[in-house]
Amino acid sequence: MNKIQQAFANSKTLITYLTAGDPDLQSTKNFICALAEGGSDIIEIGIPFSDPTAEGPVISAAMERALKNKITLDNIFSMIAEVRKTVSVPLVFMTYLNSVFSYGYLRFFKKCREVGMNAIIVPDMPFEEQDEIKEYVQKYDIANITLIAPTSRERIAELASNAQGFIYLVSSLGLTGMRQKITTDIAGLVKQIKEYAKVPVAVGFGISTPQQAHEIAQAADGVIIGSAIVNIIAKHKENAAEEIVKYVKSIKEAL
Amino acid sequence: MKKGRFGIYGGQFVPETLMNAMVELETAYSLYKDDPEFNAELSGLLNNYAGRPSNLYFAKNLTDKIGGAKIYLKREDLNHTGSHKINNVLGQALLAKRMGKKRLIAETGAGQHGVATATAAALLGLECEIFMGAEDTKRQALNVFRMQLLGAKVHAVESGSKVLKDAVNEAFKEWTKRIDDTHYVLGSVMGPHPFPQMVRDFQSIISKEIKEQILQKEGRLPNVVAACVGGGSNSIGAFYNFIEDAGVALVGCEAAGKGIDTPETAASFAKGRPGIFHGMKSYFCQTETGQIAPVYSISAGLDYPGVGPEHSYLKDTGRASYVAVKDDEAVYAFEQLCKIEGIIPAIESSHALFWAMENAKKMKKDDIIVVCLSGRGDKDVAMIAKYKGENISE
After folding, report:
1. C-beta atoms of A151 and B21 within 8 A
2. Beta strands per DSSP E along chain B
3. Confidence at residue A217, expressed as pLDDT on a 0 to 100 scale
4. A105 contacts on B by Cβ (under 8 Å)
5. B374 is catalytic
6. φ/ψ of residue B178, rounded to 5
7. Which residues of B touch A102 (CB under 8 A)?
8. Quick check: B19 and A127 CB within 8 A?
9. Which of B41, B71, B127, B295 is deepest in the core (most CB within 10 A)?
10. What structural domains and CATH numbers belong to chain A?
């Protein structure tokens, strides 16, 4: 069983997100430890990009803050190598494709393997364009996570049956960010995906309260929380670790 | 070649949420592009509403003054709404209507594409919302009001550097939020497949007409076709039907801004390298670490860090060549055309005009250069005054 499958093995899985370099890389390292301490089963690390077209205002602002510090991929890889000394949960990159393309696919995935990354999520690379990185994710055993959206409809069969690691089900149309209410029929979608998928299904976009997390977890294998954590970091800056642990615990308990 | 690719360029790099919209658009476009009824309706609008065919005008005064090759101007500035943008917009708006869409959204830089989209929406009874960088709403205040008069809602985009790139970001984001009843009228030969191909097809009427007109006037093809390149829609339109005519040189003029040796430039080919952004693989101005670079040009319409994928392919294969023209050079050409020919060109088109004026000198008197005069310059008058240090109120 690989690390990602293990993370889904026992109970409902909590996947948490932060942006690398917000407010600085030393803090990111501490926050990853805090996310793990609070009970995150998988941690998603966002690579900041100048034009994050899938992100809502909260994560966009975090990326802007990170880029002000001139964060580079090499810095991020070094930070992760450090984190890996103490944190063993699966780590996933969330990155726009140009960051990877610009670094060089081969060099990027080789480095991912070296520092102990387990998967990658690329919001601007749909199924049809996966050939871009297929060769390299296979070679270095990095799971390329498939996103499925409420608009995927008849695409679900092909997307789900080819998915690796886990499926990231986007709860709503639009961008990342907290929502008062998720109106999509999540249970229905998960059921449809499960007809084809060999991997677990986690739901993200718009989840922030323990109540929401609990409800979603009834229908899916896991929940993904991003903007709510990034908000805590925006508010408490380098001192956010304690609040992060508290918040993640509250979600984990609700699942 | 893979679907939607031009060599290695192009593709469909959009979030999964938009993929079915791409599939739907592609299906609708391939259904209607050869549909006689659709084409009859589009031709009817282009001819009776937009004023096509546009003139191919022999700029005799300019030619005489320069004393080299004959300079012809393809007068896209005479189209309804004042630029080539209407060619594409009417095509996409008709298509959107056939797809049952009720609402058009679009990005705009100089405002030309926004005005054209607002116009088509008014004509066809569709809702319209335009995304425009906050900087550009200041540079092109008149066009903002023009769009509002036409019934469109204009959103001033405050993110990033507040110019065209950021307007495209916001338009894509808006589309991700509301897809069912909305069509995104992309204004250039860029973005994900099928846009680069579809917009090129709608704009290729420019070169189709140039070819017929020049054969009629001169009995032969031109030596050079020159056009400005931002995203690249007027240029691909002007080049397309000449790609197979090896004897016709194709020259794209991108915006050097204050110079390609300065950071204030928008020359994607001179300064950029291949990357993946805004749904496509193509050339982009970017930092060493792959962040999209802030760009600059006096021309809001060329102030974009990338270029359409077919241009990247034409560049790599050597079929077209690309040069960078600076702000001051474009302004010089702008003023010359006003004084010598009595035509106020768009500052965008003036980039290509400058190249033609410089290079006509080096050519023989019976050589022919066709310049795509992609738009009229009324929108630029206040900005040119400011550039020259004169204070006028609009």
Report:
1. yes
2. 5-6, 9-13, 56-58, 70-75, 103-108, 127-133, 153-157, 182-184, 224-229, 249-257, 273-277, 279-284, 320-326, 368-373
3. 96
4. none
5. yes
6. -140, 100
7. 275, 286, 289-290
8. yes
9. B71
10. 13-144+216-249 (3.20.20.70)
